[in-house]
Amino acid sequence: MSEHQNSEVITKEKIDEAIKALKEQKPKERESVSDREAVRKMRRYIEKLTSDKYGYSYDEVSEMLKGLGINLSGSRIKYLIGELKKSSRRQKKTSSSDDNNRSSNPATETQLTVVNTASEQASSEPDKSTVNSAKGKRQSKEPVAQQQQAESNL
Predict the structure, then answer these.
(1) pLDDT value for 113
(2) Looking at the predicted structure, is the pLDDT value of residue 146 above 60?
């Protein structure tokens, strides 16, 4: 039942050595990669061959790759190239829109303070906004009691 039958005493020094050894490890080289990764690595060459200048079809590229032991259909290659283009467009758009948002809207603390102060003043005053009536005249939306009191003072 006990798993620690043959274990030694683990010291802090051993743990530190183990951490150091683990940190120094490099990623393993994989023998195989996904079809998406393979097409990503070959993308520029596939796009070159399928361009108007070279005129190869995706099926012809697929046949070339089959001769090298890479079995991907022409439609699969075309789909993966399209996906890679979409993802790179999205990355460019988000990075450029982030840059535009930062530079085109530099709200300073002073501007924010002015806006906040103005809104606080507006909220502390009674509602005195004006509304256009049906005849196009402006009417006050002051509370009725204040409006009647103002009229009686006239």
Answers:
(1) 46
(2) no
